[in-house]
Each structure stands twice: as structure tokens, then as C-alpha cells.
């Protein structure tokens, strides 16, 4: 509404002004010539995941400077936008969830909001409401696979990389930051796991003969809020593979038997026995006479260690004493071998007892029978030297 005051003056000379005036009231009719204007868009709203359906997350405000229906604004979401998780009230502009939000499913929404007036023809404006779904610690660390089977040779060095564990947490930030621990099966402390890299390594040397297999329980814990942290576990089966690191050991330090000089060929004299703590081919023991059988009077079964009379008969009058050096080994060229000394005297075959007058001198410090040393001519020399 506009108020106009009109007064009249003639064109004479001198001009005379009218003594009265008129007031004119002008009513301007509105045309729909203004678009709705958003007051608070574009905008980024943040909402915690897990927010249930029916919760208001934001209120859109738009104004239209026209009046009446031309200035009456309504709201809607643009067709084709991922709006199914949200609704907007057409009159108030309040945006409400329609489902529980899950950041791992959709982490961010770009909602295109349209504000339209009621004029003829209608005018509208469009802007964007970004809804960012904030993470909560609702995901558990998961190993893939959950069970690992690995084999490691017992001679691997310290800090050897045994296995790398694959573990993921679908959360983000600190909620997805994982720390790793061995929580079971590592009673002797042979293994460690990287606090951050999930790599299982050896701490000290392994020994299959002591422990042939380990069942390690690995745990991953996220760095979520205290009291809300989540963890997952994996099992690592470690099989320790054998290497040939043990010598055959004779069960006795000496053997003795009494035999007549007319014992027939092939007749058993004494059973020698050695064992090897290794397994498989590395633990198989073979026997041979290294020294002392100059006249081919003896032979030994290569696999069971039975000492027998050989092709040539015994003759006490010719040789009243025999000293045999018998070796147990598990590879013809390998270092893992041990030997034992046998002596025949006065018409019988017997071992030289420790402490008897004819006993050899004591072994050098740190050495002993069954550890690759041979007693020969009262001097201890390495097995195989001078005995071929």
C-alpha cells in the first residue's frame, strides 16, 4: 500500500495554488518475481552411526520475499537422490532418519533439497545438505583366514619371519587401529608378534627335539574408547621341521660278550644299539666297523647293529686281542656320527670297562663317547681319522 498526496496549482501569472489537496492510496499487487532463498544451505551435518529411525538431524530454512502464496515455501528432496534413509517435512524443513544409520554401509549422503513457492507459476531453488555419518566402534577385528598352518625348519635364525597375519577392522580412525598380542601357546617364549605389523617372528632358536609343534593364539585389539574396545583372535599352528642336527648315540658306553674261538661264521656276538633324536631319514642309524678288523674276522649288520663273526675264523693263538671301532652314522658324508670301542682279550670278546688298568685316558674336556670321537690305541682322535 502506498499513500500519495496530490495538490493543484494553475498556470496564471501569478500562479495560484489551490487551497485543498487530495490523497491517493495505491495498492501494489504482488507478482511472483522472487525465488526462495536458503538461509542455511549448503551445509554439512554430522550424525553418529547407529542413530535410529525417526530422529531429526537438521532443519532446512528458506525464505521467499513475495507475499501470500507467492511467498509460501515448501520442501522436498530431488528425485533420484539417495533419500530413502531420510525424509524432509514439506512445511517445516525438518530432515528425519527413516532407518538406522550404518557408516560401514554409507558413510556420507549428498541430499539435494528443493524449496518451492506456491505462486503461479512456481519458483524454486535447489541446494545441498551433506550428512556425514560418524564412526562408532561397532566392528570387530577379523582375521582372514582365522586359522594358519605354517612349517618352519628348526635351524631358522633368530628374528625369522614365520607368518604375516591379515586382520581388518571396518571402522575408521582409532577404532580401526589394531594392536597384536600372542595370548596363548607361547609358553617358552619362542615367538613374538609385531605390535602393529602382525608379523610373527622367532625370538630364539627352535629345537624340534624339544618341541615339535606350537599352537599360538593371536589376538587383535582395536584402539577404540576404553571400555568399548573390540578384539578378534586367530590360531597359528606351527610345525617345526627336522634338520639333521643330532648324532646317533650308543645306548651303552661299552659292550662285552664272551665267545669261543670256534664260533661259526655269521653267529651273533653282541648287539650294539644307537639312537638318533632326529626323525625320518635324519633319524635312521647305520652301523659299520671303522677299525680293528684287519683279518676280516667280524662283520656287523648295517641297519640293526648286530656284530657277528666274519668270513675268517677267530684264532686266539694268532690274535689274542681285538680292538674294534664301530661307528653309528646316518649319512655317509655327514658329520653326525658316533663310535664305540670293543676289545677282545684272552680268548673272549669283551669291552674294556671304564676304570680298568687298560682303559684309555679320559676324554678332552667337553667331549664324550657317542659324540664323534673314537678311542684308538689309547689316544682319542676324531671318528673316522686313521680308521679307514
Automatic annotation (TrEMBL):
Q: Which PROSITE patterns match?
A: CADHERIN_1, CADHERIN_2
Q: Where is the composition biased (Low complexity)?
A: 345-357
Where does it localize?
Membrane
Q: Which InterPro entries match?
A: Cadherin-like_dom (IPR002126), Cadherin-like_sf (IPR015919), Cadherin_CS (IPR020894)
Q: Pfam families given for it?
A: Cadherin (PF00028)
Ranges for domain Cadherin come to 4-38, 39-143, 144-250, 251-363
Example of a GO MF term: calcium ion binding
Q: What is its main location?
A: membrane
The transmembrane segments are none
SUPFAM superfamilies given in the database record: Cadherin-like
Region (Disordered) residue ranges read 345-388
Q: Which GO terms describe its cellular component?
A: plasma membrane
CDD domains recorded for this chain? Cadherin_repeat
Name the keywords, alphabetized: Calcium, Membrane, Repeat, Signal, Transmembrane, Transmembrane helix
Specify the superkingdom: Eukaryota
Q: Under which name does UniProt file this protein?
A: Cadherin related 23
The record lists the organism as Molossus molossus
Amino acid at each position: 500500500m502506498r499513500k500519495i498526496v496530490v495538490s493543484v496549482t494553475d498556470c496564471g501569472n501569478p500562479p495560484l495554488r489551490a487551497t485543498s489537496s487530495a490523497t491517493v492510496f495505491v495498492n501494489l499487487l504482488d507478482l511472483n518475481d522472487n525465488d526462495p532463498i536458503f538461509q542455511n544451505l549448503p551445509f554439512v551435518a554430522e550424525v553418529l552411526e547407529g542413530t535410529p529411525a525417526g530422529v531429526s538431524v537438521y532443519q532446512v530454512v528458506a525464505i521467499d520475499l513475495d507475499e501470500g502464496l507467492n511467498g509460501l515455501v515448501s520442501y522436498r528432496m530431488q528425485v533420484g537422490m539417495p533419500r530413502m534413509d531420510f525424509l524432509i517435512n514439506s512445511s517445516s524443513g525438518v530432515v528425519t532418519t527413516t532407518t538406522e544409520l550404518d557408516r560401514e554401509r554409507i558413510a556420507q549422503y549428498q541430499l539435494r533439497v528443493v524449496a518451492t513457492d506456491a505462486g503461479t507459476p512456481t519458483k524454486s531453488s535447489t541446494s545441498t545438505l551433506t550428512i556425514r555419518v560418524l564412526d562408532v566402534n561397532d566392528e570387530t577385528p577379523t582375521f582372514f583366514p582365522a586359522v594358519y598352518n605354517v612349517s618352519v625348519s628348526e635351524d631358522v635364525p633368530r628374528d625369522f619371519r614365520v607368518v604375516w597375519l591379515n586382520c581388518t577392522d571396518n571402522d575408521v580412525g582409532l577404532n580401526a587401529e589394531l594392536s597384536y598380542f600372542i595370548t596363548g601357546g607361547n609358553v617358552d617364549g619362542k615367538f613374538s608378534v609385531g605390535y602393529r605389523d602382525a608379523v610373527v617372528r622367532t625370538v630364539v632358536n627352535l629345537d624340534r627335539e624339544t618341541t615339535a609343534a606350537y599352537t599360538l593364539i593371536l589376538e587383535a585389539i582395536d584402539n577404540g574408547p576404553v571400555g568399548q574396545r573390540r578384539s578378534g583372535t586367530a590360531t597359528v599352528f606351527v610345525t617345526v621341521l627336522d634338520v639333521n642336527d643330532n648324532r646317533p648315540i650308543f645306548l651303552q658306553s661299552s659292550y662285552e660278550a664272551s665267545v669261543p674261538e670256534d664260533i661259526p661264521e655269521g653267529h651273533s656276538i653282541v648287539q650294539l644299539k644307537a639312537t638318533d633324536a632326529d626323525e625320518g631319514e635324519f633319524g635312521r642309524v647305520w652301523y659299520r666297523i671303522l677299525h680293528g678288523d684287519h683279518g676280516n674276522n667280524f662283520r656287523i649288520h648295517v641297519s640293526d647293529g648286530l656284530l657277528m663273526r666274519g668270513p675268517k675264523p677267530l684264532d686266539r693263538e694268532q690274535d689274542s686281542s681285538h680292538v674294534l671301532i664301530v661307528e653309528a652314522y646316518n649319512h655317509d658324508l655327514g658329520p653326525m656320527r658316533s663310535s664305540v670301542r670293543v676289545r677282545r682279550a684272552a680268548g673272549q670278546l669283551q669291552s674294556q670297562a671304564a676304570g680298568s688298568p687298560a682303559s684309555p685316558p679320559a676324554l678332552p674336556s667337553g667331549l664324550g663317547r657317542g659324540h664323534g670321537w673314537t678311542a684308538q690305541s689309547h689316544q682319542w682322535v676324531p671318528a673316522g681319522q686313521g680308521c679307514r
